[in-house]
Amino acid sequence: MANEYAENTTLRSPLGRVRGLGSAKGGTHHWWMQRVTSMALLPLMLWFALSAASLAGASYAETVAWIGRPWNAVLLLATIALAFHHTAAGIQVILEDYANQEWVKMGGILAIKAICWLLALASALAVLRIAV
Amino acid sequence: MSIMQDSREATMSGRRSDGTPVRRPLSPHLQVYDMMQMTSALSISGRITGVIWSFGLLILVWWLVAAAAGPSAFAGVQWFLSSWLGLLGMVGLTAAAWFHTLNGLRHLSWDAGYGYDIATTYRTGRMVLIGTAVMTVLTWLIAIIAWA
């Protein structure tokens, strides 16, 4: 039957359809980056939580000396970058799920991205000023 | 949240093209679930603890920027963190952070295709709750020993 034939036919190859990513213009990249950052943050946050706990009651000089140690500074910079990426990605999904108005959704996502970028850069600058 | 007896109760208020109001059927959503079940409760807690941790990141930013700014700015952070409100907030934050982390591990195993049957879901859910309590206490034990 003609209809049956039409249903199973498309002008695009399966590979082309996958590469085209459909009307969303996005595939699994956002989701995948959430998983990648979460896996990277597992050891980093374990390290940071235990370090921060052992810094309880430390003086200003001791804290600054700890941040400034090269290994700590590198791990802190990695934690900052990954944590803010993960946070922005997570809040974006929450906005996409719960914001009804398109302008609220779009505005909220852009605002969250801006805030996360600025806070990440400020934190990174703080670490670098202490470490360098 | 109350459990809906009939999914047809889930309707949305819409308007016909002539402007007259109409209640159109909607596929069953949150209303049909008992949100106090372990599965739904832990699911939404994953999101809530993620949002809480976003606020925790603000404290991390404040801590780092104040440390870079100098002793007087850093004294402000220390004053807040050692105040009752600060301590209470940090305890809550630690618990939220551990929950989000352990629940995240659960999600990663689901993403890999494991643990979908109901018995395992409940078992890993209980493990997340127990793990959160144990790790929160452990973190604060380290903090108290370091402080003393």
Secondary structure elements and pairings:
The complex is a heterodimer of chains A (132) and B (148).
Chain A: H1 2-7, H2 14-20, H3 29-54, H4 60-68, H5 70-98, H6 102-131
Chain B: E1 11-15, E2 21-25, H1 38-69, H2 71-82, H3 84-111, H4 118-147
Antiparallel strand pairs in B: 1-2
Helix pairs in contact in B: 1-2, 1-3, 2-3, 3-4
Question: What do these coordinates show?
Answer:
- The complex is a heterodimer of chains A (132) and B (148).
- Chain A is mainly α and 132 residues long.
- Chain A is 81% helix and 0% strand.
- Chain A has helices at residues 2-7, 14-20, 29-54, 60-68, 70-98, 102-131.
- The mean pLDDT of chain A is 88.
- Chain B is mainly alpha-helical and 148 residues long.
- Chain B is built from four helices and two strands, in the order ββαααα.
- Chain B has helices at 38-69, 71-82, 84-111, 118-147; strands at residues 11-15, 21-25.
- A two-stranded antiparallel ribbon of chain B has the order 1-2.
- In chain B, helix 1 packs across helix 3 (84-111) and helix 3 (84-111) packs antiparallel against helix 4.
- The longest helix of chain B has 32 residues, at 38-69.
- Chain B starts with 10 loop residues before the first strand and ends with a helix.
- The model of chain B has no long low-confidence stretch (mean pLDDT 88).
- The interface between A and B is medium-sized, with 34 and 34 residues.
